[in-house]
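Lab notebook, page 48
Experiment: co-folding of the full assembly
Goal: obtain a model of how the components sit together before planning crosslinking
Operator: M.T.
Materials (sequences as entered):
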Amino acid sequence: MCLGIPAKVIEINESGIGKVDYLGTKVKANLSLLEDVKIGDWVILHAGFAISQMNEEEAQETLQILREYASHLKE
Amino acid sequence: MKEFRDKSIIRGLLTEIDKISARLKSPIKIMEVCGTHTMTIHRFGLKKLLQDAGVEMLSGPGCPVCITPNDFHEAAIESVTSRTDFILTTFGDMTRVPTKKGSIQTTVPAKGSRVQIVYSPEESLEVARNSPEKDVVFFGVGFETTVPAIAISITDAYEEGLKNYSVLTALWMIPPPLRAIVQAENIAVQGFLYPGHVSAIIGEKPYRFIARQFGIPGSIAGFEPGDILLAILSILKQIEDDKPTVANEYARVVRPEGNLQAQAVIEEILETKDAHWRGLGSIPRSGLRPKKQFAAFDAEVKYDLRIKAGSEDLPGCRCGEVLQGKASPPECPLFAKTCNPESPYGPCMVSFEGACLAYYKYARR
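Observation: model returned without errors.
Model output:
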């Protein structure tokens, strides 16, 4: 039950409910478990709730590490 | 983000894994705890590729449909067949688990009653709001990823005074069965792949005892092939350096402290309880239930369901052993014969995250 999908926040209402876009499908999401969510943030959606915000910096770092493994082979 | 599936990157990672495992005594046995990891590992062919690189992956107990004993299903079935004007809402895969009373999917509801499949606890609340004349029970099953959402549906119902709504909770925590597994003598797990989204909720701390008390390395992992291989690499390095810890290879989603707001919600609404797991037996303080002030929304209390511990699987089903990493699905005599996705004999073949279903779909080419 770890199935969580990355989705982009497109709407935020006062009650903590918002809308996210998952590959073009717009769904309602409860954002109350997160602080400082902004429109345009990427979140992980699970059972109708955004459970985590994606950290852009960390994502870039991981991508960089991964890319090194490709170049590694070509040596 | 395509790097996570890029073939040359995957090959590079596997080459590195192979190098390290060759220096250690292979095969290195690593347990992936989470059913979604099991599925990803199978789906992308990683199981065989890792085997060739000296790493043997064992599946663990992180499949909530698999570890929920049949008593819960039987109580749910009993309710919807004997009570009128009763709606049982549930996640889809729970409905196909076979029990001595049949499955939820095949029950014949009483007059005015029905079973309705939902994708979220919020949907169940909507059903209750739209049908005030019916009793609505949500069969809320999950690990810590799903627990906050289920807990919030209870407080929402409480605050709205939605008296016709209650939750039959089958809520489980990941760290306690891991303790049971490392304390058992006969499984030589050398490292753990920790579940990415459970960890997004609970953080790193709950796993630390595994490294500190038992000296077993582990890494939190995301769900792309690249994520899984990075985490396995981290585990191998921990073994080689003899520096067991809880590494976080999913830092873009998991904060070391987890989601504090979600933890506060769990703390406020639920309390721990001793629970009986399919396959692993009774584990102290391994389950969660609503606190007494929410008893009116706890279906077990509201309907006096008396769910007893110690459910029995159907005879011959070896799902319990599969969940502990003691048997692999093909070792079960029923696998792919009596037990298959069209007519599953046990929950490990039913669940979207079940080890037996993963094997059947991907490892039998």
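Interpretation: Chain A touches chain B through 35 residues (CB under 8 Å).
Next step: discuss with group before ordering constructs.
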